[in-house]
Amino acid sequence: MPYSLSNLLVIGISSRALFDLGKEAQIYKEKGLDEYIQYQLEHEDKVLKPGTAFPLVKGLLALNERKERLVEVIVMSKNSPDTGLRIFNSIEHHGLDITRVALTGGEPLARYLEAFDIDLFLSKSESDVQAAIDAGFAAALLYDPPTEHTTQADKVRIAFDADAVLFSEESEAIYKNQGLAAFFENERQNANKPLQEGPFAKLLKALSTMQQGFDPADAPVRIAIVTARNSPAHERVIKTLRAWGVRVDAAFFLGGIQKDKVLKAFGAQIFFDDQEVHLGLASAVVPSGRVPYKTGSVLNQGSEL
Length: 305
Description:
By secondary structure, this protein is an alpha/beta fold. It is built from 12 helices and 10 strands. The radius of gyration is 19 Å and the shape is globular. The termini are far apart.
């Protein structure tokens, strides 16, 4: 029987998101493909250091040791098979339970996401992430890793922004176009109407499913919502999660307070947000990724929720 990924949480991750390939990327940018290839071949046996998503990947793969296999991680890279050998060597050195790698030889990665049943795609390529979002996949553009970040090994800790990440852009667009008073009034009037799904809704539901069967105190995944929403806009969020049948462990309705200190206290191994204004500080203390808006979105100029 063919191996099926359909019942697993499948993470597609670029080699630059998993490992620190900053120097190699600079060589490619400044000196071109031939110099990049030569450098990779000459350093084939030099192990790559962990990148931004390494703590998250390591934590997720550890879940497979607690119960039946829950997670599959697939490294997806535009490297050729020849230059990609260094990736395999680094995976083996770090003891990562990753056996599947897609090396596309320069072709865009987004076209392969459906083939691998990807639930989440993480990359440091803006064009690849944008293509994934446009195709309907949960995807994030990762920032450089924080200089000081201590991973809490007890659980996988994932934090999400609310609007335009877990939920659709609808409410945020009202704020952008009509102001805060109109936004609050819309949320009051629609408190009992579930918010529409955003790009990360399916991922949240998959993570919540993984929590089932565990007492909340013993669940291996801890989920937090960290949002600039505050009262009275909190009620609709809570009732939407109920309607979806999703359990989150923590929610922080900050009302404009900076998110970085809360995220550091939570111990997030990854934080997903749609706005630079929040991610600039957050990425300095926890691994972070920006969720771009779909091409043509009215929010492409940014907003503040």
